[in-house]
């Protein structure tokens, strides 16, 4: 029941990607409204992602697709110190690689701590090796989800 009732939330979409998505939407006055909505989103994104010191995405069950988007958004996270992907992380090799690549390429330059709970020991080992190798000094805490351990 808990798994079925869990709310979902998409990852933060970088402003340019949001603007491109807006192009596909209908507005009363597209010429006026498109620019206004895009600018409002960009300001909100900067306030919430660009200036955040901590971001938590716990219990969302994000997989590779969501983390690919998050990896692009992290290039805007200039003050981020702590990132928590939470429980029930369903990342595969592609998501782990995308996250590691973005960190290696300079995303979230102040990031010191990254935490994720995976469903398997193999994913834990893969994630820890890739993420620690992406950024010197990054504290990576990965472990197997305790729900799975107790089942």
Task: Report what the structure shows.
49% of the residues lie in helices and 15% in strands. It is α/β, with parallel strands linked by helices and 151 residues long. Strands 1-2-3-4 form a four-stranded parallel β-sheet. Helix 5 links the parallel strand 2 and strand 3. The protein is globular and about 50 Å long. The protein starts with a helix and ends with a helix.
Instruction: Give the low-confidence spans.
Output: 147-151
Distance between the termini: 16 Å
Record the strand order, biggest sheet. Answer: 1-2-3-4
Main pleated sheet: 4 strands, parallel
What fraction of residues sit in β-strands?
Answer: 15-25%
Radius of gyration, in angstroms, nearest whole number: 17 Å
Helicity, as a percent range: 40-55%
SSE topology sketch:
Layout: H1 2-5, H2 15-22, H3 30-50, E1 54-56, H4 64-73, E2 82-89, H5 93-104, E3 113-118, H6 121-134, E4 139-144, H7 146-150
Parallel strand pairs: 1-2, 2-3, 3-4
Helix pairs in contact: 2-3, 4-5, 5-6
Highlighted features:
alpha/beta, disordered C terminus, single chain, 49% helix, globular, four-stranded parallel β-sheet, 15% strand, 151 residues, 7 helices
Short description:
Helix content is 49%, strand content 15%. With 151 residues, the protein is α/β, with parallel strands linked by helices. It starts with a helix and ends with a helix.
């Amino acid at each position: 029941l808990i798994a079925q009732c869990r709310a979902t939330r998409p990852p933060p979409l970088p402003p340019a990607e949001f603007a491109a998505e807006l192009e596909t939407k209908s507005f009363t006055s597209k010429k006026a409204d498109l620019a206004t909505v895009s600018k409002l989103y960009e300001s909100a994104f900067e306030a919430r992602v660009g200036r955040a010191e901590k971001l938590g995405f716990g219990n969302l069950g994000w997989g590779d697709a969501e983390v690919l988007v998050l990896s692009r958004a992290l290039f805007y996270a200039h003050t981020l110190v702590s990132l928590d992907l939470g429980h029930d992380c369903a990342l595969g090799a592609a998501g782990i690689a995308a996250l590691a690549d973005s960190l290696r390429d300079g995303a979230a330059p102040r990031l010191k701590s990254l935490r994720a709970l995976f469903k398997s020991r193999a994913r834990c080992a893969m994630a820890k090796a890739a993420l620690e190798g992406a950024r010197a000094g990054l504290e990576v805490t990965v472990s197997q989800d305790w729900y799975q351990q107790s089942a």
